[in-house]
Amino acid sequence: MAGAGLLMLLDDITTILDDVAAMTKLAGRKTAGVLGDDIALNAEQVSGVAAKRELPVVWAVAKGSFLNKLILVPLALLISAVLPAAVTPLLMVGGLFLCYEGAEKIIHSFFRKAHKANRAHKPAAEGGHEAVADAEPHDAAQARQEMAAVTADLDAATLRTNEQAKIKGAIRTDFILSAEIVAITLGTVANAPFGTRALVVAVVAVLLTILVYGLVATVVKLDDVGAYLLRRKGPHTTARLARATGRGVLAFAPYLMRGLSIAGTAAMFLVGGGLLVHGIAPLEGWVHHAFHHAAGEHVSILEAVSSYLGPALISAATGIVAGFIVYGVLVALRRLRG
User: What is the pLDDT of residue 22?
Assistant: First the structure.
C-alpha cells in the first residue's frame, strides 16, 4: 500500500514537472521580445566603464536583477491572487518611467554634445596652467605633481561615482523589464494551479536572468576577446586566422556598442510604450484591429510586415510622446519648487 502511494506521488510529481516544462517553454517564447530589449538596454547601461571593471559591474547589476526577481515574483503572485486588476496599472507606471528615462537620455545626450562643441571653441590654455607657468622652476614642478595627484584622486572618485550611478540606473531599468517578464509569464499560466504558476514564474525569472547577463558579459568583453586573438603569434594558418578574427572583432566592437546604445534607448520607448498601449483598452483594440490578419487568410508580404512593424511603431510613438511629456512635467515642477 505504501509502495502504491509512493508511485502515485512520483507520478503526480512527474506530471507537474511536465506541465511546468511545457508552460516554461511557452512563456519563454512569449518573453523573447523583451529578452532582446533587456540585453540591449543592459549592455548599453554598463558600457563606458573601465575595462577591468566591466565584469564586476555586470555582476553587480546581475545580483541586483536577482534581488528584483526575489521581490517581484512573490509580489506578482500575491497581487495576481488577491488584486489582479492592479497588475496593469502598475505596469503602466513602470512603462511611464521607462519612457521618461529614454527621453532624459536623449535630452542629456543633446546637451552633452552642445557642451563639448562649446568647449572646443575655448582657448586651450586656461586656469591653473598659467599659474604653474608663472611660478619658479622648482615650485612649478612641485605644483604640477600636486595638481596631477589631485586630478588622479578626482578622476578615481568620479569613476567610482559614475560606476555606482550606472549600476543603480541599470538595476532600476531591470526592475521594470523584470516586472514585464513576470507579468507576461503570469498571463501565460493564469489558469494553472497556484503551485504550477509559482514554479513556472520562478524558473523563467531565474533562467532569463542568467541568459541576459551572460550575453551582456559576452558583449561588453568583445574588445578583450579581439585583443587576445590579435596577440596570437606565428606563421601558421590558425594563428593568422586568429589575428584576422581579432582585427575584425576590434573593428566591429565599437559599432556594436554604438548600435546597442541606440537600441537600448529605442527599447525603452518600445517596452514602455507597449505597456501603455496594453493598458489603454481603446488604443490596444484599435492597434489589434488595424494590424491583425486572421489565421488562414492569404496575406501579402506588406500585410505580414505591417502586422509586426505597425504595433511596434505605435508603441514607440506612444512611448516617445509619453516620455517627453513626463520629462517636461517634471522639469516644470522642479522649476516651480526653485
Answer: 55
Task: Supply the DSSP string of 223-291, one letter for each residue.
Answer: HHHHHHHHT--SSSHHHHHHHHHHHHHHHHHHHHHHHHHHHHHHHHHHHHHHHHHHHSHHHHHHHHHHH
The mean-pLDDT minimum among 183-187, 227-231, 327-331, 333-337 falls in 183-187
The mean pLDDT of the chain is: 75
- HSE of 275, CA atoms in CB hemisphere, 13 A: 30
Q: From CA 141, how far away is CA 126, in angstroms rounded? A: 18
Q: What is the Cα–Cα distance from 52 to 266, expressed in whole angstroms?
A: 28
Q: In whole angstroms, give the CA distance from residue 338 to residue 336.
A: 5
Higher pLDDT, 257 or 63: 63
* Axis crossing angle, helix 32-46 with helix 137-188, rounded to the nearest 10: 170
pLDDT of residue 13: 47
Task: State how far the alpha carbon of 116 is from the alpha carbons of 113, 119, 121, 234, 259, in Å.
Answer: 5, 5, 9, 44, 22
Angle between helices 301-336 and 281-291 (to 10 degrees): 160
216 contacts 39 by C-beta, under 8 angstroms: yes
pLDDT band per the 50, 70, 90 thresholds, residue 212: confident
Taken in order 311, 313, 318, 320, is the CA torsion positive or negative?
Answer: positive
Percent residues over pLDDT 70 in the chain: 68
How far apart, in whole angstroms, are the C-alpha atoms of residue 137 and residue 188?
75
Q: Determine the residue type at 26.
A: L
**pLDDT of 316 strictly over 70:** yes
